[in-house]
Write a structure and sequence with these properties.
Chain B: It is a multi-pass membrane protein. Chain B: This is Amino acid/amide ABC transporter membrane protein 2 (HAAT family). The complex is a heterodimer of chains A (411) and B (349). Chain A is 40% helix and 22% strand. By secondary structure, chain A is α/β, with parallel strands linked by helices. In chain A, strands 1, 2, 3, 4, 5, 6 and 7 form a seven-stranded mixed beta sheet that branches. The longest helix of chain A has 20 residues, at 46-65. Chain A is globular, with a radius of gyration of 23 Å. Chain B is mainly alpha-helical and 349 residues long. Chain B has one domain (26-318). A two-stranded antiparallel sheet of chain B has the order 1-2. In chain B, helix 3 runs antiparallel to helix 5. Classes of the chains: A alpha/beta (411), B mainly alpha (349). The interface between A and B is large, with 58 and 62 residues.
Chain lengths: 411, 349
Amino acid sequence: MKIRNIIITFVSALALLLSTSVTSFAKVVGDKIILGSAISLTGKYSSNGVHTQNGYNMAVDRINSMGGIKVGGKTYKFEIIYYDDESNPKRAAQLAERLISQDGVEYMLGPYSSGLTKAIAPVTEKYGVPMVEANGASRSLFTKGYKYLFAVLAPANLYLDVAIDLAVEKNGGKPVTVAMAFEQDAFSQDVRLGVLEAIERTGSKKVIDDKLPKELNDMAATLAKVKAVKPDVLVVSGHTKGALTAVRQIAEMKVDVPMLAMTHCDAAKLSKQHGKNSQYALCASQWHKTLTYKDNFFKDGMTYDADFSKEFGYAPPYQAAESSAALLVFKDAFERANSFDKVKVRDALAATDMQTFYGNIKFAKGGQNTDKPMVLFQVMCDGDKCENKVVAPTKWASAELIHPIPSWSKR
Amino acid sequence: MNKNIILYSALLIFGVLAPFMLPAFKVQLSILCILIVLALTWNIQGGEMGYNSFGNILFYGLGMYICASAQVGMFFPLAEWTESGGEKTFVHSPTQFFQGMAFGLLLAAIIPTIVAGLIGYAILGLRGHYFAICTLGLGVAAGEISGGIEIIGAGQGFTTPPFPNVGSLESRGQFFYFLSFIVLVLTFITVKSVYSTRFRLVLNAIRDNEDKAEAMGIQTMKYKIIGWMISAFFCGLAGGIMGGLVGYIDSTDVAFDGREMGVFMVLMAILGGKGTLWGPVIGATLFHLFKEGFWTYFLGWQYVALGVLIVVIVIYFPEGLMGWLREKYPERFGEVVDEADRKAQVELK
């Protein structure tokens, strides 16, 4: 029965291997402050995961090259340990555990998407590890009483409710009919809640309320209904793929609707990829390069846009901008805390009140950023060149909203 | 026999001491236990019975949702817990948490078993590719359907009750580790004892030639259903534990995760050697080590590596590691090789 010997050898080798592979980094090594992050480098969120990672890296390079972080009279530099969470919440929770208990990370940066943040937040909370996240907007993240979670972005329910208000305003203050199509994921469903509240508030009526599968590749059935029902507003949210699918199929099926409101237009590079087909789409955004916020590192939105484009070869979507802002927040908090103690850093984060190129950042009790409004932009084309122009709120508007959208036969 | 006792007690001691020896790896070790359970139970269908099931993920996901729902529903209104993506927060007291978990796990084992019996009755008449495709559909459908049921959080997901504040920071990890380890031991004992009876021979007969088995008077349907129910029982338990461990259930990405877990359980069993008792255990362990290693050190290439692994398995180890060893060293598996007979056969050719 020598097979038993084989198995015994195998098991002992395994035990040895595991026990020797326990390597623990510390939170601060030499002059480096180690941050940890699980990022979607593969899977359905991979394009936005990369935007997030690029945003983080851009800010790390910038902060390090401009003098680093000064704590206790010494200068430190940021370094980030990344893992690929495969766009999977199960994996993300596991990686958060790993970053903290194996790699010894004591400060975390958020992943991409609300669902993954929902999976990671309980872990960071349990260990009391401060996490600044830039891409988890679901409202339920901020009602759980998490003390170590800080989001630089506005919650998801504020994404598109403004669009409904705008439609009502354009309709002479009268209620409108709304068709809704949302992907079945934490973020999009939260956007839906915001829209539902706006519908109720304005006395409008929802005529279509479709849930779409993840990794949205086809929404022809919904659009066929839209053609038949002719609503005043069509709202679509389904991350990057949802935006691309919607615009492609609306153009193919020549669906006429007076207002098309979406999310993730800039992450999907709609104006570039679909050009004139994406014209008139109204998009919710956390940030736009023309906003006039300023800071010492990236100067302002236009400069950030230029620097980012130079480095990565494409214009930064807001996912990248907010990710960069997360590091500015961390730097600021470390310097104010003047310590690496997790609790002190957490308290400093809670007291954050600053302006970055991305917007003002001040955290409410639940951890969400209440100091930065959402903006809506519309894709506008001049000849073949399409651009995103801010149309609301009026304070930042650089163009007038085009409403209603001209029908396909007249384009 | 002596060596067996030494081996099993060594493994048991290793299992009990592991979370203390490797405190930082508790979560990975718990997941390893779950993976082994899934591979062991898949092997009952895929390995012993020759029915390639992609539907075992259904029981795993069901177990996950059932356990979490019971744990919440016993003490709080479930609909309010999941409303608007779980905006309201209710806090389980430690007693409530553990009572709920125990009751939840009980249901998570029983309900999938019943479901397996019912579905099995309906679809185990299908054979070969038809059965595989049908079960594949089951998993996908379950994911999409559960993503539309509001009371379990629909597309927003279901946050399972957080572990109560008892003991130290380590207690959560230890609790889930020992829970999954106990389930692993139970599964192993069950599978091993089932394999030592006539039951295994029947399953093998079904795999080798189902019509002939039937002609011999074996009620194949009965055995197929019982086999599937055993798998469902432990898959449900594994799912229930995993839900608590991850803390957040998403319909297609965590619960009915056919694309990952559903495929991994097949891959692990094949890697180790399907149709053997130890194959799935070794396969799952190697797979987990491989995956953790590549996902850490070859970031960006991990799926390429996984693809290479699959190709290597298919080409060089079609029978898995155990099958390969068995072919190389048949005498170590208790097979008697008659050297003269073997030579005679070679010469004949």
